[in-house]
Each structure stands twice: as structure tokens, then as C-alpha cells.
Amino acid sequence: MHNPVLVEVTRGEVVESRHRGAVCVMDADGAMVLELGDIDRPVFPRSAVKAIQALPLIESGAAARFGLTDEEIALACASHSGEPRHAGAAASMLRKAGLDASCLECGAHWPMGDKAARALAAEGGTPSALHNNCSGKHSGFVCLACEAGEDPKGYVQPGHFVQREVRGALEAVTGARHDAHLRGTDGCSIPTYAVPLRALALGFARFGTGHGLPAERAKAAERIRRAVAAAPFFVAGTDRFDTLLMERLGARAFVKTGAEGVYCAALPEVGLGVAIKCDDGQARAAEAAMAAVILRQLKLEPDDAAFVAGLMDHGMRNWNGIEVGRVRAVAPLHG
Questions:
Q1: Which of 26, 149, 162, 214 has the fewest Cβ atoms within 10 angstroms?
Q2: Is the dihedral of CA 152, 158, 159, 163 positive or negative?
Q3: Taking residues 136-144, what's their average pLDDT?
Q4: DSSP for 262-320, written as a single string
């Protein structure tokens, strides 16, 4: 199956690039609302499922025991920009568990945020694991291990208690088997499993509504959504799509970027889950496609609709500030 073109990039009046992909939108009962392209091909959601991976942190009582704040719970779901508040929140999570950054197994990289990276370099600093965009998720994994009385060492390995709990949550919420033959290793060293967009959309519909989940898991999902709505900066960062959209829409939309053109969302207000994969892995295309889906599925006030439309169809400027083209979602995504 050839996936349809979802997003075009123009330069002047000419289409310079086209991004193909697949989109699935469904409710928590599995009823299909929108299907574009091949939604049954397994894809690696990677960071897009961090909120589901964080469910055991809440369900186990670890978040409550260690007194994790909204900001810290949001960070546990984050692919953050490595800004000082992000790194500080990760360090705080670890302190509450009696540990420090030396226990993190995600590796170190320069902050994803350009300003944060430049500031760190200007101070003569070097990046640590706290600046890794996944440090909040990993700090949550450490807290989960400590709550269970397990040694956190090796928590990134598939057989470790933490990853068994995470895999169980992913399987239960999405309904998809996370088998070893579909397993890869994520950029932050934890296991990642390829599953179809159909399963991801169902999982996010369940995550957003609690429908089809046991009571405690539904309560944990609601706690995560509430934390993220209260502190969307900690899920991404300054001028990032996830943060901008959730700052604007609040609890009406939970959105999370993955990698290689994957995006997932829960739209609790209408009971829907969304899963997108752009074939070429381009984040700019996945963002525009997600904005188009949200604009199509949510009944927004004019100001909010205009804001989301600006994420779906926006200009590109050169170094002199001249608009030279546009990134725009195209017909298959328009309601």
C-alpha cells in the first residue's frame, strides 16, 4: 500500500517536498473514525508512548511516596529540551529517591534546545545525563525500582523488573503483543517495540478516557493527564509543538512526539486516540498532520482554531526573515 501525501512543503508557488504517511483515529471501543494509509504495519512509537510507560510509576504508588509534583510527573513523560528547569526537575526526582544522576543509564547529550545548549557551553559546562531528553522518564524508572525494593542498576534491560512492568502496561493499554522479535533498542537504551498505528490509536483513546482500563490504571492515566495539562513546559520546552499546543488547549489534548515521524495523541473531550507515522521520519510533517487531525476532531473556539491552524499551515523564513515557502497539511487530512 502506498501511503497518501499528508503534508507538502512549498517554495514560492512550487511544491518542493511531499511527505507521505499513515493516520489512525479511533475511539476506546475500537471504532474507526479516520484511517489513512497503512495503519497495520508495525512502527516503533519510541518516545510517543512515554505517558503509557509512566503508568507503573503512578500505579505502584512510587509517585505518591516520593511526593512527585505535577512538573516531575510531566517530565516523566517528556522528550524535553534540556533547559535548566528540565534538568533541575530530573535531579529533584532522583534526590527524592535518595539517588543522583550517576544512576541514570540514558547517556548524556547536549540539550536539544539550541538556547539551552549555547548557554551551557557559554558557562563552560558539559552535558550530563540530566540534559538527555529522556532523563525524566529514566528518573521515573529509578523511582519505580526503588519503590519496589529493586536494585535500579540495569533498569534499561528487557528482563529488569522496571522494563517488565513497562512492557506489561504497554501491552495491556494498546492490546498489542510486545514480542521480542519486534523489539529494538531506543536512543536512550531502553527496549522499544514495533506495533501498528491501529493499536497505538486504541491505546491513546483508552489512556485519554480510562474506558477499557482497570480502575487503578484509569486513575493513573487521569493523574498523568492532569499533571501534563498543569505543566506542559516540562513535556517538551520553549517553542516546542507539544508544549505550545497543550498550553493552548489544556486538558482537551494530550500530544506527544516520538521519533522518525511518529506522533500520538489522546483527545479526552471527544474520546479519541490518534497515531501518525510519516514515512520519511520528518517531524515537521508529523506536527502539521497532528495539528490538522486535532483541528478536524475538536470543536474549537475561533481563536483556538486559528492557533491550531497556524501549526497545520505555517510559513518558512530564511535567515533574513523573508517568508520563502510554507509547510501545510493537505487534502486527505482536511475535514
A1: 149
A2: positive
A3: 98
A4: EEEEEETTTTEEEEEEETT--HHHHHHHHHHHHHHHS---HHHHHHHHHHHEEEEE-TT
DSSP collapsed to 3 states, 147-212:
HCCCCCCCCCCCCCHHHHHHHHHHHHHHCCCCCHHHEEECCCCCEEECECHHHHHHHHHHHHHCCC
Handedness of CA 280, 310, 227, 216 (dihedral sign): negative
Residue 82's contacts (CB-CB under 8 Å, 6 or more residues apart) are: 109, 110, 111, 112, 113, 116, 117, 120, 127, 131, 132, 133, 237
- Per-residue pLDDT tens digits for 147-161: 999 999 999 999 999
Residue-wise pLDDT for 198-256, tens only, equals 999 999 999 999 999 999 999 999 999 999 999 999 999 999 999 999 999 999 999 99
Q: Which residues of 6-16 are buried (b: 16+ CB within 10 A; e: fewer)?
A: bbbbbeeeeee
Q: What percent of the chain has pLDDT over 70?
A: 99
Written as one letter, the residue type at 273 is: G
Domain boundaries, the chain: 5-333
Burial of 17 (0-12, 13-18, 19+ CB in 10 A): middle
Q: Are 229 and 239 in contact (CB under 8 A)?
A: no
User: How would CATH label the architecture of 5-333?
Assistant: 3-Layer(aba) Sandwich (3.40)
Cα 205-208-213 angle, rounded to 5 deg: 75
Among 49, 46, 82, 280, CA closest to 186 = 46
- H/E element holding 323? strand 323-329
CA distance readout (Å), 122 to 84, 117, 125, 224: 14, 9, 7, 35
